[in-house]
Amino acid sequence: MPRYVALLRGVSPMNCKMAELKACVEAAGYANVKTLLSSGNVAFDTARKTADAALEKKLEAAMQQHLGRGFYTIVRPVAELQELLDADPFAEFKLPAQAKRVVSFLRAEPTATLELPLALSKASILAVRGREILSAYEPGDDSPVFMTLIEKTFGKDITTRTWDTVRKCAAG
C-alpha cells in the first residue's frame, strides 16, 4: 500500500484536535492513519497510488465535512520525503551550527526563476528543488522573519516544516 503524508497549513492544538483529525482521515477511507506531532501532519496508506492533487482535494473536503473547517493541505508520498532526506540538500550550504533548517512545500513547482539565495535579516531562502523551498534562519528575536520572506516570495499557499519534522513525517 502506498504511504503518504498530509501536511496541513495553520494547524495547532488550539484549532484542531489530533484524534478528530485522525478520525476524519479514516472516515475519508484511508488506512493506518497516524498523526505526527500536533501541527497538522498525518501519515496514511491508500489502496493504490494516487495523484497528490487528488488526495489533497479529498482530504480538504473530508475536513470540511467532518471537522467543520478545512486546512490548506499538501500531500507527499513518504518515499519522496525520504528521498529528500537522503539527498541532504542542506549539506551544500555553509550554515551556522545554530541555524534552523526548514522546508516549505508547494503544490506545484514555481514558474518564476529566482536569484538565490534571498536573505532578510538572519533568514535565507537557499534553494528551490522542485516543489520544495529550502530555507534557513538563525533563531533570535526576529526569527519569524523567515516566514515573512518565504510568503513574500512564494505566497501563502505553502506549508513549512523544520528539517526534524520532515524526518519524523518520513518515518511516520
TrEMBL record:
Record Gene3D superfamilies: SP0830-like domains
Pfam families according to UniProt: DUF1697
Protein's name according to its UniProt entry: DUF1697 domain-containing protein
Lineage: Bacteria, Pseudomonadati, Pseudomonadota, Betaproteobacteria, Burkholderiales
SUPFAM superfamilies: SP0830-like
UniProt cross-references to InterPro entries, sorted A to Z: DUF1697
